[in-house]
């Protein structure tokens, strides 16, 4: 009987120990509620595409003059850093080669290196703007990459957007590239700020028109307003003139011969 009682006590003791161990190691409802829920991690947003401005301008249009200027002055490095190393992006206005050739040669050659850099920086906004953005920014001075003294105004007339500087107001003739973070727009004139040019820059003189060389058979009208003479009538007049000269020479010789006989 004692053995059975001891066995029963041992079983009760072992059961008590097991319950205590489970109670101390199992999480409570509060602990379960407080535990963070595991959710699938979100994929990182794709990085904006890298745009090589030199490659873009060399193949996108007739922009070699502008590309040469920003490369020689190293302004392209500022544009490239703004486009790909900032969140604001870049908006670039690129004049065509013909826009530069329309200026007098001394217009840009007389600028100092700092003035030339400012002029090139004047052709960019330190922020990405799409064409639709421009529609909401009309008649609002916008600071360019060149600084606070160099602002541009935009106007929108039935879809035709013009960029107004002090001495020129070119239109945006085409959208060359417009994907964040870079927008490139083509202009038909160079932007000319008054901060650099105190007076209107000279325009290159147009070449003189070639003279109108008429065919040899076409004769100019006479001063009296009569119709031009035909080639046949001119030939006839020339022949008659030659005959008259021949007769006159004959008479002169005859008179000279008679005079000699008299002597």
TrEMBL record:
The record's section on SUPFAM superfamilies has:
FAS1 domain
GO BP: plant-type secondary cell wall biogenesis
- PROSITE patterns (alphabetical): FAS1 (PS50213)
Is Lipoprotein included in the keywords of this UniProt record? yes
The residue range of the signal peptide is 1-30
Provide the protein's localization.
Answer: Cell membrane
Q: Which GO terms describe its cellular component?
A: plasma membrane; side of membrane
Q: Which SMART domains match?
A: FAS1 (SM00554)
User: Where would one find coiled-coil regions in this protein?
Assistant: none
Q: Which residues form the FAS1 domain?
A: 50-191
Keywords assigned by UniProt? Cell membrane, Glycoprotein, GPI-anchor, Lipoprotein, Membrane, Signal, Transmembrane, Transmembrane helix
**InterPro entries to which the protein is assigned, alphabetical:** FAS1_dom_sf, FAS1_domain, FLA_A
Domain of life per record: Eukaryota
Q: How does it sit in the membrane?
A: Lipid-anchor; GPI-anchor
Q: What is its main location?
A: membrane
Provide the transmembrane region boundaries: 240-262
Give the function comment from the record.
Answer: May be a cell surface adhesion protein.
The similarity comment for this entry is:
Belongs to the fasciclin-like AGP family.
| The protein's name | FAS1 domain-containing protein
Which organism is this entry from?
Answer: Dioscorea zingiberensis
